[in-house]
Design a protein that fits this description.
single chain, six-stranded mixed β-sheet, four-stranded antiparallel β-sheet, 0% helix
Length: 115
């Protein structure tokens, strides 16, 4: 059974940093692209970043390029999202997802950027 558990969210001031983690189980993690999405209140869920199975290919939304970094540790079955220079508009629930089009999502972790 596929299981994805996000952690690391919280309240941070503008300009601050957070590191999100997503621990995966129930499948061969190293064989799948992983992605991070976010959903702000009243908005649709949007892709933030994706990483190929080996980590050799990365993909970012324009809104986070240069500020966020996606990475993975296949030995730990974990994907990360390092978020720097956070802005109030980054406030959202952040979800990890297996691949880009699957129905396998984590439960989400809240990130709030506010002074």
């Amino acid at each position: 059974q596929v299981h994805l558990v996000e952690s690391g969210g919280g309240l941070v001031q503008p300009g601050g940093s957070l590191r999100l983690s997503c621990a995966a189980s129930g499948f061969t993690f190293s064989g799948y692209t992983m992605s991070w999405y976010r959903q702000a209140p009243g908005k649709e869920r949007e892709l933030v970043a994706g990483i190929s199975s080996t980590g050799s290919s990365l993909n970012y939304a324009d809104s986070v390029k240069g500020r966020f970094t996606i990475s993975r540790d296949n030995a730990k079955n974990t994907v990360y999202l390092q978020m720097n220079s956070l802005k109030p508009e980054d406030t959202a629930v952040y979800y990890c997802r297996r691949s880009y089009g699957s129905n396998y999502w984590g439960q989400g972790t809240q990130v709030t950027v506010s002074a």
